[in-house]
Amino acid sequence: MTQPFPTDWSHALILVAHPDDPEYGLAPAINHWTRTGKKVTYILATSGEEGIEGMPASEAGPLREQEQIRAGAQVGVHDIEFLGLPDSRLSEAPDLHERLTAAVKAHPDTDLVISLYRGPEWGPGMPNQADHIAFGDAAVDVVAPLGIWQFENGPEPTHHVEVSDEDVQAAIDSLAEHEVYLRVLDPTTPVAAQARAQVYRSISRDQGWIRVGLRLISRPA
Ligand SMILES: [Zn+2]
């Protein structure tokens, strides 16, 4: 049994490695929060510049930033920051902790953080990415001393956010904004269909409810 997600907060930071990380798994909850008056800020370590096969980083980085900005707008997020750290090589970035600390400190009103899953795999045969693990670990180091809520977006949730069909549709529209990225990733499945399948995978449904699960890392003292 998962617990209802806390509501005693007003500003959440979403700390992720790449464009599209906020959309895989979190977007329905984010739409629920922004439409109920919560403030949500995305902080992305990289611009995902190595993420589009066959496209040079100098072209892919700016393109993916624009896709991420449009994706955020679909779920009511207009505050999106890119730290410009190296995609696919986050664990080697010597200033990772320093840059993340500065970015978090720039939002002193933050009372909740959601960061990336740090475990080795999402499930059998589904390995997690090194960038996710490196940034997730750094986020825990940086946020722990603040004594605020921290969750991660991964398997074995402890808490759930109740969302609506409207939130699910906004999440699909949000992920579908990563249009070029998804089209290159899977040229044979239409982008909207890819987005719908991914978002459906990230929610659980039963009679009368739709939920997004999140795993508690630490709570306010
Ligand atoms: Zn990622």
Descriptive account of the structure:
With 221 residues, this protein is an alpha/beta fold. It has one domain: Rossmann fold (3-Layer(aba) Sandwich), CATH 3.40.50. 37% of the residues lie in helices and 23% in strands. It has 7 helices and 11 strands. The chain is globular and about 45 Å long. The two termini are 23 Å apart. The mean pLDDT is 96. Bound molecules: zinc ion. Zinc ion (ZN) binds next to loops.
Please summarize what this structure is:
The protein contains 7 helices and 11 strands. The protein has 221 residues and is an alpha/beta fold. Strands 1, 2, 3, 4, 5, 8, 9, 10 and 11 form a 9-stranded mixed β-sheet that branches. Strands 6-7 form a two-stranded antiparallel sheet.
Strand-helix topology:
Layout: E1 3-4, E2 11-16, H1 27-35, E3 39-44, H2 57-74, E4 79-82, H3 96-105, E5 112-116, E6 121-123, E7 126-127, H4 130-143, E8 149-153, E9 159-163, H5 165-176, H6 179-185, H7 191-201, E10 204-206, E11 209-218
Parallel strand pairs: 1-9, 2-3, 2-5, 3-4, 5-8
Antiparallel strand pairs: 6-7, 8-11, 9-11, 10-11
Helix pairs in contact: 1-5, 2-5, 3-4, 5-7
